[in-house]
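*** Backbone structure tokens ***
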Amino acid sequence: MSADTKIAELLTELHQLIKQTQEERSRSEHNLLNIQKTHERMQTENKTSPYYRTKLRGLYTTAKADAEAECSILRHALDKIADIKSLLEERRIAAKMAGVYSDSDPPRKTMRRGVLMTLLQQSAMTLPLWIGKPGESPPPLCGATPASSDYVAKQGDKVAARVKAVDGDEQWILAEVVSYNHSTNKLEDLEKRHTLSRRRIIPLPQWKANPETDPEALFSKDQLVLALYPQTTCFYRALIHTPPHRPQDDYSVLFEDTSYADGYSPPLNVAQRYVVACKENKKK
């Protein structure tokens, strides 16, 4: 089955799930209205009788079941969206490998800087938010949660890669994995064909962490990290100045910068997508 056919099937399934969500929500609204009216009658009568307590218990039990059913449908819909994005990414990588570029995705070497920066912002904004079940811990690569020990980067994964610059110095750059060679334990980057060992790459987060429900999955204040410097594709050492307070918030970081008296830049915002743990503990 071709990628286009799979995507078309997934879109059809996603459409059905969206319709189911709306049907479930419409059905539950009647029960929520009954809850509201029951509370209004209790306030009017200024009493809480056994009858009302029993009725409300039943109404709230039904409301909880309705919410769980809607949540289950939404999770299935999110899974379909993730599958569609994965297939689109595979198709994009395959086109680049074959040297075929669409108008909306030209090769990086000819891409205007402004276009590239916009794409990076879009990638950060569309990073999915991890929404776990009650009591469920965030998975690896959610926010600051590191990858598992047996993690192997997949084709299309975005990583921070340590490479040699033109002047011979090493730097951390934003890279995209093309392939992983199990026999050599090395990965290949798409743009300049860097072949790197696993020790020289740090996978980027695949989910945003929700500060309101999973604050432990975020870097804490004054923690040393590597962060993508705004308007560049290079990662530099920085200290967390302020972690995100809401799901849509960025980190505020202080980049190491010797041109400032205290050795750090003023606070700059960097999206969760582009902040990873620093493997070097000591300041140079």
